[in-house]
Write a structure and sequence with these properties.
Elements (H helix, E strand, L loop, with lengths): L2 H13 L16 H5 L10 H5 L1 H14 L3 H15 L4 H17 L3 H9 L13 H14 L3 H14 L1 H14 L3 H6 L3 H13 L3 H10 L3 H5 L3 H23 L3 H44 L13
Helix pairs in contact: 4-5, 5-6, 6-7, 7-8, 8-9, 9-10, 12-16, 13-16, 15-16
Length: 308
């Protein structure tokens, strides 16, 4: 291959290069057993409160919430709040907090923020029984909604008042974002083992692309995708053979058209191998991260002390 052709190959290959940065989607679901084992931080309703309309709605809402029937819990808590009006400010804050907690457990982060910013909880301090829990909920909600200035403000309070919680949230955020560089800096043996397991299983994006560049289909074979490898080999082989025959027989126009199609398939396969390697790594990372975070209780929910 002469220098000009080699340069053209490098330029085309760089255009189809896939970044190594993975974008995993790590999710978790709250189980009833976790809710059942967590105490409520607020005093039980008195017999008199239980007889009031707002108290009856409150008890029904709490029952829904403990069963993770969050939609009905939220609507019933809201009815309780309307019936309570301003008779008891502390009970009002309590109900508002449970609405926010329900939204959080349902991963309705925008609703968490909207309800908080229109509630009396904006003025609570460390004396509020669930102050640390509220900070965790707001941190995660602002982070997920990409409201960085408010997230950073919550971070400052957490780092000062609740350093251990802040440390856990910092690690979990890095895992969620697959910030491997940040994770590798942390002096944590279990975290290092997690990274080693992932690195031992992941595939090289550049190697997958390189193999497909050398022999179309080889990159897919490296990823364990035998069917895609066979299809790519046959497809590229057919177009190469057709192009050769057209040029050999003097059908220049047909040869050029067929070659242009082959170039599309060829470079498309290089890009496709990189994308498949990235996708493969994301699935491996998600599997390892989910198991690790559940075992080490690093999901944000595990930083909460109280429940309904």
């Amino acid at each position: 291959m002469n220098k000009k052709l080699f340069l053209i190959f490098i330029i085309f290959s760089s255009c189809y290069r896939v970044p190594n940065k993975i974008e995993p989607k790590i999710s978790y679901s709250i189980e009833e057993k976790y809710i059942e084992n967590m105490a409520s931080p607020f005093p039980l309703l008195t017999e008199e409160e239980k007889r009031e309309d707002w108290g009856k709605e409150y008890m029904i809402a709490s029952s829904f919430a403990k069963n993770l029937d969050l939609y009905r819990a939220i609507s019933t808590y809201k009815r309780s709040l309307i019936l309570l009006q301003n008779k008891d400010i502390e009970r009002k804050k309590e109900i508002e907090y449970f609405i926010i907690l329900s939204y959080f457990l349902g991963k309705k982060y925008k609703d968490v923020i909207d309800h908080f910013e229109n509630s009396s909880l904006k003025n609570v301090d460390k004396s509020f029984p669930t102050f640390s829990d509220l900070l965790v909920i707001l941190y995660e909600s602002y982070k997920n909604e990409n409201i960085l200035d408010k997230k950073e403000a919550i971070e400052k309070v957490l780092s000062k008042e609740f350093p251990s919680i802040y440390k856990n949230l910092n690690i979990s955020s890095a895992i969620f974002e697959a910030d491997l560089e940040e994770l590798s800096k942390k002096k944590n043996e279990k975290l290092s083992d997690f990274l080693k397991r992932y690195n031992s299983k992941k595939k090289s994006v550049s190697q997958a692309q390189f193999l497909n560049a050398i022999l179309p289909g080889a990159g897919y074979l490296y990823l364990g995708q035998k069917r895609s490898a066979l299809t790519t080999i046959l497809l590229n082989g057919s177009f190469i053979a057709a192009s050769y025959e057209f040029f050999k027989r003097g059908y220049i126009a047909a040869g050029i058209i067929t070659t242009s199609f082959e170039m599309g398939w060829y470079f498309g396969a290089i890009y496709g191998a990189g994308e498949e390697a990235k996708f493969y790594n994301e699935r491996i990372y998600e599997e390892e991260a989910n198991a690790f975070m559940k075992k080490e209780k690093l999901f944000p929910f595990f930083n909460l002390k109280y429940s309904f």
